[in-house]
Structure formats: C-alpha cells, structure tokens
Amino acid sequence: MRVLAAMSGGVDSAVAAARAVAAGHEVVGVHLALSADPATLRTGSRGCCSREDAGDARRVADLLGIPFYVWDFAERFRADVIDDFVESYSRGETPNPCLRCNERIKFEALLDRGMALGFDAVATGHYARLSVEETESGESRPVLRRAVDPGKDQSYVLGVLTPRQLAHSMFPLGDSHKSEVRAEAESSGLPVATKPDSHDICFIPSGDTRAFLGARIGVRPGAVVDADSGDELGRHDGVYGFTIGQRKGLGLPGPAPDGRPRYVTSIDADSGTVTVGGAEHLLSRAMTASSPYWLVDETIREAACHVQIRAHGQATPGYVRRVGDGADARLEISLDEPVRGVAAGQAAVLYRPEPGGDRVLGSGTITASVPAATAP
C-alpha cells in the first residue's frame, strides 16, 4: 500500500513510520505545520509543531530512506481546533482539543489530501488497535479497540473517527508498550529515541490556559453563586476561567462555612453565572450527547456499554440509546453508578462491555448531564 506517515517529530510517530516501512509499504513522511509561528521552540515536554519538531521528523525520514514533506495546515488548525477551543470555552464547555485535532486535521484534512494524491492510508503513532470484520451483508467494517498498553491507550481520542476514516488508517503501535517503542527507537538509531513526550495543550506551550483564553475572549464579568442557597459569593472575569469539578482558583476567600471544599458544579455562559458547591453536586447518573458516531451495526439503536468521559478516565458501565437521525441524532446515556464531573463539551466514548470491554462502540459530544440526585 501507499502509506502517508504523519510524523510529528516525536518517538511514537517515528517508530510507527519505521514499522510501516518494515512491513513493505511505500511510505512517504509528512510533518504538519500547525503553528502560525514555526520559529516557536518547544520547552521540554510542552508545545509541539515547532521548527525543532519538523527537523527531528526530517532526520528520521532521512534515516528511513523515505521522501519527506512539510504540509502547512496552520490556517485549518487555527479555524478548526484553536478557534473551536476558544468558542467552546466561551460557551461554558470543556472541549478536548486533541480529539478535535484528530477528527478535523489528522483524519479529515490530512487523509482527504492524501487520498486525493493516491495514498491508501495514513499511519500515525497513536496507541490503539485496528482490525476489520465482515458484516452479514459481506461488507468490511473497521473495528477500533484499546491499545495493549493501558497507560498509553488513545482509543478515546480516536473514538470520533468515522468508519471511512478508520478504514484508511493505520496504528502500528497498538500492540506495543511504550517502553518497547522507546527501546526499538534506540536500537534502530532513531535520533528521537529519548525525546520527551508532549503534554498539555500543544498550542499553549506556557500551560496557562486561563491567560490564553482571556487574551482572546476578554473580560466578561459574572457572579459566583452557592449551589444550595443561591447566594452570590464573589465575582469573576469570565466563565472561560472555570471547568466543572475545578477546586482551585475560584476567587473565593476559603472553603464553605462547614469547612468542606467548594467545586465548580455548573456554568451558565448566557448569564455569566458560575455555581459552586460540595462534591455531591458533581455526581451524574445520566447524560445526553450530540453528533453521535457509530462504529458498529447501524441497526443497533440501544445497547449496554461502558462510558468514558475523559482521555485517561475510567469507563463506567451503563446503557445507551440512539434517538433521532441526521442533524437531530443524539445519544441518551444512563450510568449504573454516578460519575463525577461530567461537563458539556466533553466526549462520551462508548465501549462494548464484552468480550474484554475494549471495542469502541461509538461516541458523542456531551450536551447536558443529569445530577445523580434527580436521575430516575
């Protein structure tokens, strides 16, 4: 196959490209220039898409003996990931930019361009497993599963991909542990073998998300109110400075009168109200999600599942119902046990409970949650 290897400049994508070459594919390496300022350098494990990263990716490609190109996707990344991130926070949501990048850049923009140029698949350094099954009608359907290494599993951030996108994807690292990948890179002489992994949000290398958002959204003052009494406890400069479950940085003088810590329990961007309360207010037993993706038989309208709402969170047993079709389609999800900190904007990725609980069933973007105290 003709394979386009997405090379970020890190060890994972380097080994993924090397394995694609070793498997006999015709491989071309491509680095995505996602920063409007390519001179920006990473600081340790913060940031990415820098000139340093592009250089590292090129050195790996030279060592592997494959062609290498840099494609400028900075404008698309700004519009589809950065602007979406800012707008989502301004609505009081908690988005996952890595998930959005996978959905709209690596497996939409990149894949579309690659297929237009005659490539069969895109290979990345994500930790997930991908296989194919035959349906009753004789068609092939991709199967997305968790990686062998539970600590590096990235099936959650890939759960928003469509069957078509998955059918043209390759994840060569899914059957390996991270320690094995680094050892392979070192034994192969790859120059990025000991390079640290990127952490946090790649386009906020400072790590100060509140300052990043504040510079783009501006001051939008509102009230911080108590969940039980409704009393105003303080003021804030914008709901973008808060996320559901947040405990620190609330701008309040201390804990509740009874000594219990306060957490952000809800955010109303329209009124600018941030509500704080005890830990019990963070528990949810049900949620709805829009823009559903379905990776199994389309005739299945409801099923038992395991629900994961964070990239590295635990999956909770529950039940999902698909309601409506097209633009009005949504998921109604109930949980066997309450989950803490469900927030609008997060992705709910669903896994089949048997066998193994590692197969992705589908996903949706959370729009609302039902407090545990009021859930049926």
Automatic annotation (TrEMBL):
It is an enzyme of class 2 (transferase). Pfam families: tRNA_Me_trans, tRNA_Me_trans_C, tRNA_Me_trans_M. It is found in: Cytoplasm. The active site is at C101 (nucleophile), C202 (cysteine persulfide intermediate). One of its GO terms (cellular component) is cytoplasm. Residues 152-154 are annotated as: Interaction with tRNA. InterPro entries: MnmA-like (IPR004506), MnmA-like_C (IPR046885), MnmA-like_central (IPR046884), MnmA-like_central_sf (IPR023382), Rossmann-like_a/b/a_fold (IPR014729). The keyword RNA-binding applies. Residues 285-366 form the tRNA-specific 2-thiouridylase MnmA-like C-terminal domain. Residues 211-277 form the tRNA-specific 2-thiouridylase MnmA-like central domain. One of its GO terms (molecular function) is ATP binding. GO terms for biological process: tRNA wobble position uridine thiolation. Its EC number is 2.8.1.13. ATP binds at A6, M7, S8, G9, G10, V11, D12, S13, L32, G125. Catalyzes the 2-thiolation of uridine at the wobble position (U34) of tRNA, leading to the formation of s(2)U34. Belongs to the MnmA/TRMU family. This is tRNA-specific 2-thiouridylase MnmA. It comes from Dietzia natronolimnaea.
